[in-house]
Amino acid sequence: MARSYVAEARRRVGPKRARIRPIIERLAAAHPDATIALRFRNELELLVAVMLSAQTTDVNVNAVTERLFEKYRRPEDYLAVPQEELERDIYRTGFFRQKAKALRGTMKMLIEEYDGRVPDRMEDLLRLLGVARKTANVVMAERGAATGIVVDTHVRRLSQRLGLTRQEDPVKIERDLQKLVPREDWARFPHLLIWHGRRICHARRPLCEECVVAELCPSSRVDATQ
Length: 226
Description:
- It is built from twelve helices and no strands.
- It has 226 residues and is mainly α.
- α6 (83-89) crosses α7.
- The chain is elongated and about 60 Å long.
């Protein structure tokens, strides 16, 4: 019964390749302010903020980095204090010991291998301690040089609900999205899903009756016959 309902829902909304452009356009109109929520002034601060954002909220990270970025301005500053001091400074973001270790390891590599600068290439970013694909994708996208699509919990949930992927693994979800989303939209597409997920498509009780893409969504609870 459930399987037949899903099949019927997919037939109702049409193929995903035909839906992706209208989905992007409608979400862009509904969320014109959909940009990265993390606050930063340069690429080093961007990298640090994204690294700290793992397993916590952007609001939480911004509260920590407001002071952190006044104290730590260069890669050398993160190595000039004992690790315990850095841990205290980022304590509120959670997993502070692992994050402090990753930050110090990354700063050491930046100094020794990249002249103290955040590297330009995706493959170099992925070499940095504590920098996984999601973090590297965010940095590249905010530079205007997206080489992939960021997949966080919102992107994963909404991509599945919209029928754009059936995968669970973020890497496989990203591959599916890269095949569908026009490359020029790779940077903004995650922001659109993230903001739509925060405002409308909530995890437990999505507001389908307020959703601008309800008729394009096979998971919509809005009665299409009305």
